[in-house]
């Protein structure tokens, strides 16, 4: 079929297409992306020209004046230097007839010249652009963007200086060198592992959130949105400081000073950014006394505050750092907020109020507590999902993850509320703690009225929690909770010991004859998590039983043997396989937590004593604030 010829507006005929050739409309539909891009560019240059020409057209009102041939026009008094003043107080504009017309023609001519020149220049620019490759164009756009960013930064006068606050008495920032040479040797090994992890990240992933140690390049996950916030640097600097890796610490500090900028269009997890970034920065501040860490923590906290703008004041799980718009994960019980997340902001936010004098942080988290206190508690425990719009519980599910760190906070910071964690401990024990047929104590997961006999690696932190809680419990309970902590530590060690790699699986079961063993393939991985080692360390501090150091050393050897690669440390996909594959991620918490707890396990107790320091859920140590002696802005006086 022959396509009819098309007659464009110009009147010139477009030649009729030969049979078999594609018709014009069809051809248009199959234009390649690059052709579309060029057409778009030409079109936009043309529109710009028309638009520019419109603005350069002579002013119509001027025409009118000349066309009317006004000689002398009387207009109300306006003080202008050029015109002469009439005795009546009116201004006389002297008409100049033919002379003005001549001048006007000249003006019009010069305008036309200008339009022609602009036209030429725009065409020239468009031609040059078309000659450039896509990559060159992209690079040009990026340079322009950077310039705008730089200009904006220059205009930014910077944050307001913070009020001077007395530094709490910081004790125990000592070297912590153990007296026994063999222990020191082990500690040196852990320090060397930290150096390998850091140096690899420094070389291959610097400024990215995390590292891909096999591919040897940067890595990130959705918890950091589309940002490049150097999560590993911020998460690791306090560990570097504690280990005495001063050069590396300085390097990290410099990067934070010069590059850490939170004005980015990225949707981040409020919980993760709080525990890793605010926690990491505050710890680095308290340990080193360097103001920059405090300033950055406060800048970031400001960006998180809009997350609390919900009908109930229960924060969204995610917030866009630039727009302040928050939302929840779709998978979290129809868009609920997660207790383990919003319950883990307290420690950092109280410190923020303490350091800034701004009551907002303290009030936001206290509001959460008051709201929770009024809510029903099935089985005496809070379910994991809460809808921030309605203030109602979502799916009834009890998981012992990070949420319980809120309890540690209460134990240390609000000692007057000691009954609360003790009540929660009792409820956890009654509803979640069970013994396996083989005699292993484990913490199950309660879902919709049923207790699943499965324990997650994450829940292994609870051994340390019970030990720490025991320290502040009434005498008749202290021994019991320390014993419970020891039993959890033992079970978690078993979950490591029953694998081929001697590294723990993500989750392990206790039914159908199984004892602390993973069944499903997607529960057999180890991603360099810290919780088991964390519990070993707490148990070591409270009991000094040498088995905890021995278990910790087993973990060091296994990690060094199976997770170490030339580009850092990687997680493994199956701890039951003698030939495991790597997941190719060096998690930031490996440097923040796993290596820090291992280092502390082989240090003497005078390094960060637990009477003076409380560790957040990402292992960032913050000094204990005795709120009985301090009145925080916005707080009611402590009740005794
Ligand atoms: C860390 O980011 C924190 O410990 C968090 O509380 C839970 N998950 C990881 C480590 O497993």
UniProtKB/TrEMBL annotation:
One of its GO terms (biological process) is carbohydrate metabolic process. Involved in the maturation of Asn-linked oligosaccharides. Progressively trim alpha-1,2-linked mannose residues from Man(9)GlcNAc(2) to produce Man(5)GlcNAc(2). Residues 105-154 form a coiled coil. This is alpha-1,2-Mannosidase. Its EC number is 3.2.1.-. It is found in: Endomembrane system. Its cofactor is Ca(2+). GO terms for cellular component: endoplasmic reticulum; extracellular exosome; Golgi membrane. Signal peptide: none annotated. It catalyses: N(4)-(alpha-D-Man-(1->2)-alpha-D-Man-(1->2)-alpha-D-Man-(1->3)-[alpha-D-Man-(1->2)-alpha-D-Man-(1->3)-[alpha-D-Man-(1->2)-alpha-D-Man-(1->6)]-alpha-D-Man-(1->6)]-beta-D-Man-(1->4)-beta-D-GlcNAc-(1->4)-beta-D-GlcNAc)-L-asparaginyl-[protein] (N-glucan mannose isomer 9A1,2,3B1,2,3) + 4 H2O = N(4)-(alpha-D-Man-(1->3)-[alpha-D-Man-(1->3)-[alpha-D-Man-(1->6)]-alpha-D-Man-(1->6)]-beta-D-Man-(1->4)-beta-D-GlcNAc-(1->4)-beta-D-GlcNAc)-L-asparaginyl-[protein] (N-glucan mannose isomer 5A1,2) + 4 beta-D-mannose; N(4)-(alpha-D-Man-(1->2)-alpha-D-Man-(1->2)-alpha-D-Man-(1->3)-[alpha-D-Man-(1->3)-[alpha-D-Man-(1->2)-alpha-D-Man-(1->6)]-alpha-D-Man-(1->6)]-beta-D-Man-(1->4)-beta-D-GlcNAc-(1->4)-beta-D-GlcNAc)-L-asparaginyl-[protein] (N-glucan mannose isomer 8A1,2,3B1,3) + 3 H2O = N(4)-(alpha-D-Man-(1->3)-[alpha-D-Man-(1->3)-[alpha-D-Man-(1->6)]-alpha-D-Man-(1->6)]-beta-D-Man-(1->4)-beta-D-GlcNAc-(1->4)-beta-D-GlcNAc)-L-asparaginyl-[protein] (N-glucan mannose isomer 5A1,2) + 3 beta-D-mannose. Keywords: Calcium, Coiled coil, Disulfide bond, Glycosidase, Hydrolase, Membrane, Metal-binding, Signal-anchor, Transmembrane, Transmembrane helix. The keyword Transmembrane applies. Pathway: Protein modification; protein glycosylation. Disulfide bonds join 460-492. Residues 154-185 are annotated as: Disordered. It is a single-pass type II membrane protein. InterPro entries: 6hp_glycosidase-like_sf, Glyco_hydro_47, Glycosyl_Hydrolase_47, Seven-hairpin_glycosidases. Ca(2+) binds at residue 617. The keyword Coiled coil applies. GO terms for molecular function: calcium ion binding; mannosyl-oligosaccharide 1,2-alpha-mannosidase activity.
């Amino acid at each position: 079929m022959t396509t009819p010829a098309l007659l464009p507006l110009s009147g010139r005929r477009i030649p009729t297409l030969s049979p078999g050739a594609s018709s014009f409309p069809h051809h248009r539909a199959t234009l390649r992306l690059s052709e579309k891009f060029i057409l778009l560019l030409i079109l936009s240059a043309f529109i710009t020209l028309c638009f520019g020409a419109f603005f350069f057209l002579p002013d119509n009102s001027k025409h009118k004046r000349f066309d009317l041939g006004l000689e002398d026009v009387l207009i109300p008094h306006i003080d202008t230097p050029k015109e002469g003043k009439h005795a009546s107080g009116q201004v006389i504009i002297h008409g100049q007839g033919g002379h003005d017309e001549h001048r006007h023609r000249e003006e019009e001519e010069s305008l036309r010249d200008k339009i022609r020149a602009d036209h030429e220049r725009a065409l020239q620019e468009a031609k040059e652009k078309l000659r450039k490759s896509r990559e060159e164009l992209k690079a040009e756009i990026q340079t322009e963007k950077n310039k705008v960013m730089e200009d904006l930064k220059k205009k930014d006068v910077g944050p307001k200086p913070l009020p001077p606050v007395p530094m709490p008495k910081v004790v125990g920032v000592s070297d912590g060198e153990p007296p026994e040479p063999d222990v020191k040797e082990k500690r040196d090994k852990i320090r060397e592992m930290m150096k390998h992890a850091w140096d690899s990240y420094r070389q291959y992933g610097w400024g990215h959130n995390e590292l891909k140690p096999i591919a040897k390049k940067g890595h990130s996950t959705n918890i950091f949105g589309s940002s490049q916030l150097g999560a590993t640097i911020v998460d690791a600097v306090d560990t570097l400081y504690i280990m005495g890796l001063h050069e590396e610490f300085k390097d990290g500090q410099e990067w934070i000073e010069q590059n850490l900028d939170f004005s980015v269009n990225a949707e981040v997890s409020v919980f993760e950014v709080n525990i890793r970034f605010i926690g990491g920065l505050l710890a680095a501040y308290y340990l080193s006394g360097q103001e920059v860490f405090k300033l950055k923590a406060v800048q970031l906290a400001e960006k998180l505050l809009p997350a609390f703008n919900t009908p109930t004041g229960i924060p969204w799980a995610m917030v866009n750092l630039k727009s302040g718009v928050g939302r929840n994960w779709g998978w979290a019980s129809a868009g609920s907020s997660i207790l383990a997340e919003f319950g883990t902001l307290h420690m950092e936010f109280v410190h923020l109020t303490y350091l800034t004098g701004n009551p907002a942080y303290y009030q936001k988290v206290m509001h959460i507590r008051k709201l929770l206190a009024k809510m029903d508690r099935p089985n005496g425990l809070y379910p994991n999902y809460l809808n921030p719009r309605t203030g109602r519980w979502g799916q009834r599910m009890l998981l012992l993850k990070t949420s319980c760190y809120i309890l540690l906070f209460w134990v240390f910071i609000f000692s007057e509320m000691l009954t609360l964690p003790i009540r929660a401990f009792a409820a956890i024990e009654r509803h979640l703690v069970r013994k396996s047929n083989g005699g292993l104590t484990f913490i199950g997961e309660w879902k919709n009225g049923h207790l699943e006999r499965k324990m997650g690696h994450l829940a292994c932190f609870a051994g340390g929690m019970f030990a720490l809680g025991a320290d502040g419990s009434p005498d008749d309970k202290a021994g019991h909770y320390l014993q419970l902590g020891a039993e959890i530590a033992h079970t978690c060690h078993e979950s490591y010991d029953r694998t081929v790699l001697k590294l723990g699986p993500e989750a392990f079961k206790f039914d159908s004859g199984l004892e602390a063993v993973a069944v499903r393939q997607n529960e057999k991985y180890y991603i360099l998590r810290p919780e088991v080692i964390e519990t070993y360390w707490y148990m070591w501090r409270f009991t000094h039983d040498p088995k905890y150091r021995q278990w910790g050393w087993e973990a060091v050897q296994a990690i060094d043997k199976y997770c170490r690669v030339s580009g850092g440390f990687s997680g493994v996909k199956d701890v039951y396989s003698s030939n495991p594959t790597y997941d190719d991620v060096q998690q930031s918490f490996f440097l923040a937590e796993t290596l820090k707890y291992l280092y502390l396990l082989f240090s003497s107790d005078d390094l960060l004593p637990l009477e003076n320091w409380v560790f957040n859920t990402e292992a960032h140590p913050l000094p204990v604030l005795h709120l009985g002696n301090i009145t925080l802005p916005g707080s009611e006086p402590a009740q005794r």
